[in-house]
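ok here's the first one, seq then struct tokens
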Amino acid sequence: MAVTGNGTGTAGGGGPLAGVRVVELAGIGPGPFAAMLLADLGADVVRVDRPGGGGLAIDPAHDLTNRGKRSVLVDLKAGDGPARVLDLVERADVLIEGFRPGVAERLGVGPADCHARNPRLVYGRMTGWGQEGPLAHTAGHDIAYIAVTGALGMIGNPGEPPAVPANLVGDYAGGSLYLVVGVLAALHHARATGTGQVVDAAIVDGTAHLTSMIHGMMAAGGWQDRRGANLLDGGCPFYGTYETADGGHMAVGALEQQFYDTFVRLLGIEDEAPARKDLARWGELRERVAARFKSRTRAEWTAVFEGTDACVAPVLSLREAPAHPHLAARGTFTDLGGVLQPAPAPRFSATPTAVTTGPAQPGAHTRAVAADWDVPALPGKEDGWNCP
């Protein structure tokens, strides 16, 4: 699965989505990540960038969410801008946009405009609040979306503010991944029936959906609606993190009895640990576990638990993770053009995937896409073509 290269070549590889054409209207956050995932799976993703750039203040050469794509420049506010995008839409299977509700329609590239040119098109819409509802037109970011779903309130220590899980839970798990699932399901339907549709992927919906198991546990009386009081939220002394002698941390997930038995034996507290089912003594158990972990370094504890069924692992940083022996053996990370990055996931036995090109530079592929997609009117003044 790992690949090494210089980031050159043609986007759209030999993965399971080879032959699928995707138009991505440039945005930030979950939309680009969803399009990157489709590109990782082999789709030919053409990103429509705006002249002058936009989005996050990151060098486009290092924006990994644009890897495997091709980029064209189109000013949607120019007189011919919408027509140039609709020419691409006519030849595409999927379109992804992340504007506020109504913006794509005002620009002339909304669902009705696109389906008039291509009835089979899957039109994927990525927003935080969704296309309808009192907050649909309100600005927001990941942290606000996961806050109102109850997900953010679950994370962190009791008596402390909720811990911020970067933008992984909302933008990418509740947003990008649900958009991709929706797009692929709608694509299957379109190929079976000849009819496309709109996929309304809202981060609030996806994040709420992620909490389904917790809601079931709460209904059954097995989950308390507060932080640090439950089996999976750090309230349990054998499911959490502990500091080591050198300031590192170890993660413990010894939930089942047989794994717990191995854990306390290797930790060296087998004869002194209070009964794990005695919730009244969980505080005492936590203190015993914490004291033992503080007696050795992270590396020493890693050596103790490595390869066992104790369900214990070192907490690694982003820079450390690629060197972990298991991840290295699987090729979980890959190097392309000297940039270390996560490899495509998941894996396929018949249609393997790989990172084939680096991040698309804005407008770098306008001429190639115009030829490949048979859209001769695609290049415009911003590309140096058709200038008077």
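and now the second one, same deal
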Amino acid sequence: MTAAPAAVVPTVAGRTVALDWVEANGYPTKRHDAWRYAPHQQLTALSFGPPVTLASSVPDLEAQIPVLDGPRIVVVNGVVDVELSSMTGPAGLHLLSLLDARRKQPERIASHFDRGDSQITDAYMALNLAFGGDGAVVLIDDDVVLDVPIHIVDIEVPDETRNASCTGVVIELGARSSATVVETRIGVGAEFGGSNIRTTITLGNAASLEHVLLQDVPPSHVHLSSVDVHQAADSRFLARSFNLGASYGRAAYDVDLAGPGAHVDLSGLFFGFGDQILDQQINVVHSAENCTSRQSFRGVLDDESTGIFNGGIEVHPGADGTDAEQSNQNLILSDRAEINTQPRLEILADEVACKHGATVGQLDDTAMYYMRSRGIPATEARRLLINGFADQVVDEVGIESVQAWITSRLGHDDV
């Protein structure tokens, strides 16, 4: 894996620390639990660095993303494309590029960049800190309730010089504010490439955010996504993740329930075909008392695809009154498909309620027989059963146009 010389990297706080970390610690291997099933040969073929060129146009953008009313920030190869973006919004909403935010309000995004050695978890996070100098920033003032979603679109266009881009996304909600943010990740071209996107979310007291992540990059691409969330007292975070594209698609969440009464609800769907590897890495930390967390992820795996669910719940000392649940249900459509599920609990407090469960199954023969006996063709019966399993996650999204986009995306002829 290559990296550009430090002299040509834009000045980013913590860049030297990040690159020094990679030099000292190297890249993840199969010996690291969180990266055990990753395709390391593909990962080491990625070439990261500062943006080389900004694509002047992206064909058929509107046809590839959900149609949403509201502001939009479009990022191409790690750089905000102003022409494709619409960054005006109501009072109390501030939309900026990460470059502009570093100049105008550096104190509000400092926590995204200023990471010491102890806070860097792996080389890909370090590379994002070093090279993800631009991206989208969403800042919402106290007591602002937005009734239209904010759309962040990231587009990767592999370049002959550098085939992988890094993007930063910063979302901050003030006290008692409420918003919906949709992040859509797509790509262009059949050439091998990748993207590394790191989103940091900070929720003030009693703030509420619905965050929808749609990953649908081309099957020749690698996609690395991480979402770091810090929640203050009585805040609510609802995350809906759809991990659909890429040869290797990774969706990682690290949530810190730092204030009493905070609540997080994480749900997701990963739907694999061919030889895709779709990787979910989830960690929720209960740092304060009387917090609640829910994790519910569903996998559908066909052909020779592989699904990973590595879900953790950590209850720290003093986090009494914790209420945490975790569920991973999987539907296997081929005897060549594989699911690796690993629920983890670490409880260091008293008076807590924690439970987890995982299931792996195939299509219900009884239901298939029932539908066939009523004249429904086998292919259609199979599709209905699969859609019924997946729709339980799709229906949780509060935006009809996003639901329609996901449903259309999953309408494979081979389902």
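notes on #2: The mean pLDDT is 89. The two ends are 36 Å apart (CA to CA).
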